[in-house]
């Protein structure tokens, strides 16, 4: 695949997408967003990809936001379309029927924080910093930040972070529920890939069902969410993985899951 601003590699069932503009702290320009959209589609369509990991090149940043050089030149219509493009790409990550882990190795600011929040969960380096500093540029988050941050950390804290532009460290982000785990900086990628590879060996039917039910259930009332869960629980039994998992337990052996994301 022909990419200039990202690296895309697949190993042991895991697609690793690396934002690769370290001189601009991996800021998202229109081309990078377009390449991300193509990489997500490639990960979706390849049965060999069972888990996706996003990270940033270099030692300093995951993604330091939308590219401010580009923002500075935009008229209202261009800004509206760029926001929509980013939101569409981030929704494609949420809609991917495979787990997506954000491996946040440094600054995750503005669009970078919004990108990480569109993943299923975030593993962060102890040097990572999170924030929505758009207020300092005279604008607001445009890639879903006002919405996803409020859903993850609560309305008041989200408003405080967006209104002050304050940066928080990985430990604070973990305490707020934004980050799932914090690792020493040097160990982050290895630990994330280890977790991703272990997840890649699990039932993809069950992984897809968990993602679907948690995401759709969060936007519904409890009874509707539980009804979705019961449906998806039943669907798990339509594939071979449920039989394999329960049988392997009773036979005291490791299960071998063969379900496919596309069937
Ligand atoms: N865009 C473009 N270039 C950037 C960005 C960025 N977001 N962030 C850093 N860079 C560049 C710097 O300009 C600098 O380039 P150069 O070496 O050519 O001068 C290089 O990266 C290194 O950065 P610094 O020298 O500033 O590094 P420091 O370690 O001193 O500071 C910071 C690191 C704190 C991360 C600092 O670079 C910073 O504050 N960056 C901007 C962070 C920010 O405001 N992000 C939000 C951007 S707005 C946004 O994301 C909106 C999303 C929704 C858009 C909706 C569409 C309209």
UniProtKB/TrEMBL annotation:
The keyword Lipid metabolism does not apply. GO terms for molecular function: hydro-lyase activity. Transmembrane segments: none annotated. Pfam families: ECH_1. One of its GO terms (biological process) is fatty acid beta-oxidation. It comes from the Bacteria. It comes from Desulfacinum infernum DSM 9756. The keyword Lyase applies. Keywords: Lyase. Belongs to the enoyl-CoA hydratase/isomerase family. This is Short chain enoyl-CoA hydratase.
């Amino acid at each position: 695949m022909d990419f200039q601003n990202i690296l895309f590699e697949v190993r042991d069932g895991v697609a690793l997408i690396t934002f690769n503009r370290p001189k601009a702290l991996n800021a998202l320009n229109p081309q990078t967003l377009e390449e991300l959209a193509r990489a997500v589609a490639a990960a979706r369509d390849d049965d060999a990809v069972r888990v996706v990991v996003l990270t940033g090149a270099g030692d300093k940043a995951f993604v330091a936001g939308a590219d401010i050089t580009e923002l500075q030149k935009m008229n209202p219509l261009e800004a509206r379309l760029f926001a929509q493009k980013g939101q569409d790409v981030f929704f494609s990550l949420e809609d991917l029927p495979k787990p997506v882990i954000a491996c946040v190795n440094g600054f995750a600011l503005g669009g970078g924080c919004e990108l990480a929040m569109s993943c299923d969960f975030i593993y962060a380096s102890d040097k990572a910093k999170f924030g929505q500093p758009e207020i300092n540029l005279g604008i607001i988050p445009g890639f879903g930040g006002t919405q996803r941050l409020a859903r993850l950390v609560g309305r008041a804290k989200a408003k405080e972070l967006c209104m002050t532009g304050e940066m928080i460290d990985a430990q604070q982000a973990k305490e707020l529920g934004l980050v799932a785990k914090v690792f020493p900086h040097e160990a982050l990628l290895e630990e994330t890939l280890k977790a991703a590879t272990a997840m890649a060996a699990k039932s993809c039917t069950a992984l897809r069902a968990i993602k679907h039910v948690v995401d759709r259930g969060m936007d519904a009332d409890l009874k509707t969410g539980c009804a979705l869960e019961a449906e998806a629980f039943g669907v798990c039994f339509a594939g071979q993985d449920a039989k394999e998992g329960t049988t392997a337990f009773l036979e005291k052996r490791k299960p071998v899951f063969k379900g496919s994301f596309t069937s």
